[in-house]
Design brief:
The chain is an alpha+beta fold and about 200 residues long. It folds into two domains: about 5-140, no CATH class; about 160-195. Helix content is about 25%, strand content about 30%. It has helices spanning about 100-105, 120-130, 155-160, 165-185, 190-195; strands at about 5-10, 20-30, 35, 40, 45-55, 60-70, 80-95, 115-120. Strands 2, 3, 4, 5, 6 and 7 form a six-stranded antiparallel sheet that branches. The longest helix is centred in the C-terminal third of the chain and has 24 residues, at about 165-185. The protein binds zinc ion (ZN). Zinc ion (ZN) binds near residues 73, 75, 78 and 145. The site of zinc ion (ZN) has 7 residues, from loops.
Amino acid sequence: MSNDPFLLDVREPLQAVGVPHHVTTTGDAPVRLGGEMLGVAEGTPVEVVADLTNLGESLLVDATVHARVTGQCSRCLNQLDVEHSLHISDVFGMTPDFIGGDEAEEGEEPLMVEEDRVDITQLLVDEAGLTLPFNPVCEDYGLECNDAIPAPDGISGEETVVDPRWAGLAGKLDEVAEDTEDTAGTAGTATDTDKDA
Ligand SMILES: [Zn+2]
């Protein structure tokens, strides 16, 4: 675990208040980020670019993770393999009596600096869960779906069913057409014209 890219060393940033420290780490993702259909697989090489700022009682961690996300298009099952970035920004407490704002209200454990390090793993797991689509499709990534798209159940059939009201109207139109033809035919004969006059 010594090479965990999501475990950031904060010894230097903690030495001066208000000065952002730029930190870059690389390594393999220790956990999967994202859902079943699309995500950063465990073991994928990632790069973390972070700014760590000592705010006095807490440490602001602003980090962007660059990694490949892989998965499948939920429509045509094409393989997806794209560059993706995840961004997180949160504060970690430095003292045991630090109470994180949002976290404390939700009854969760406040984020803490522990052993001169911050662990952004859970923040990234949450962010990936929120931002990566559960049902990714090719067009989300500038790709086109395979032509042979299986029609989803129950949709292809509905389009060919004629509305009963239109079906009735269509029948009436046929009758009108037949009447017109009869009239035209009758008017055309000399005998009928004499009878009418
Ligand atoms: Zn597709």
